[in-house]
Amino acid sequence: MGLFSRFKKTTPTTDDDVRAEEAVDDEEEDLTAEDTEATDLETEDGEPEDDLDEEEALLEKSAPFDRSEKGPFDISEDYPEHDRLDLGALKVPVVDGMQVRLDTDDDSQRVLAVTLIHDGGGIQLQAFATPRSEGLWNTVRQQLAESVTGQGGESSELHTSLGKELAIEVPAKTESGRPGKRAMRFAGVDGPRWFIRAVFSGKAVTDDEIRAELSALLRGVVVDRGEEAMAPRELIALTAPQVGNDDEEEKDEDELNPFERGPEITEVR
Questions:
Q1: Torsion angles phi and psi, residue 225, rounded to 5
Q2: Domains of the chain (ranges, CATH numbers)
Q3: d(CA 18, CA 13)
Q4: Which of 50, 127, 144, 224 has a beta carbon 3.0–4.6 Å from 75's, enabling a disulfide?
Q5: DSSP type of residue 152
C-alpha cells in the first residue's frame, strides 16, 4: 500500500461516522464561536484581580518542558535528521507501514490537516498562528471541555509527556443503533509563533503503545511558520506533495477502511 491513502475530500463511510462527526463538528463550531468573542478587561472599572490572573494564565504557552530539545521543533531550531514528508508548514516524520491522509476543505480545496495512521491508531495535526509571546492551547482546551460538557459529553484533563491533554467522550450511536460514546484525546503544543493541535483517535485512544508511537511522531514534527503576517489563531494551510498517480490513490483508498476523521477547526478566532 502506498504512503498516501487519500488525497481527496474526506467523507464519513458509515452512518455512525456521520453521527459522530456531526457531534464533534457541533462542538468545534461552539468552540470557534466562543473563541471569537473578545474579552475586554476593564481594570479601571474594578475588574477583579483574580480574573486578570486567570486571563494571563490562559495566555501562557503550554508545551512539553523539553520541547526545544525533543520537539515539535521550529524550523529555526536544531532538530535531528529523520525521514520527513514536506507538507509546507509541517514536516512530518514517516515510518514503515504508516499512512498519511490529507483533510481538505470542500470549497477551497485547501489542505487543513494531516492525519498519520499507524497500527490502527491515528493522530490528526493542524497548525495555527499565534503571537510570539502568547499561547493558544490553554484557551482552546478550556473552551473545548466546556463545549463537550455542555453537549452531554465528558472530559478530563491529563498530564502526559506532551504536557496537558484532554480526554473526551461524546455521545454517538453504535452499529446496532444503541446510544454509545466516542472517545478521543486532544493534545496541544505552543511553539514560537505557532500552535499545533493533535487529535488521537482509533486505537491511539485505548492502546498505550500505539499512542506512544504516534506521540513520538508528533515530537518529530518540524514547523515552518513562515515570515508572512498572519492573524492570531489563523489556520496555517498545508501543501499537498505531488506523489503517485490517480490509479494508485484510488487503489489505496479502496484498501483503507479509515476510522472517523478527527474534528477540524477550520478557523479558531
A1: -70, -30
A2: 4-37+59-255 (2.60.120.1690)
A3: 8
A4: 224
A5: T
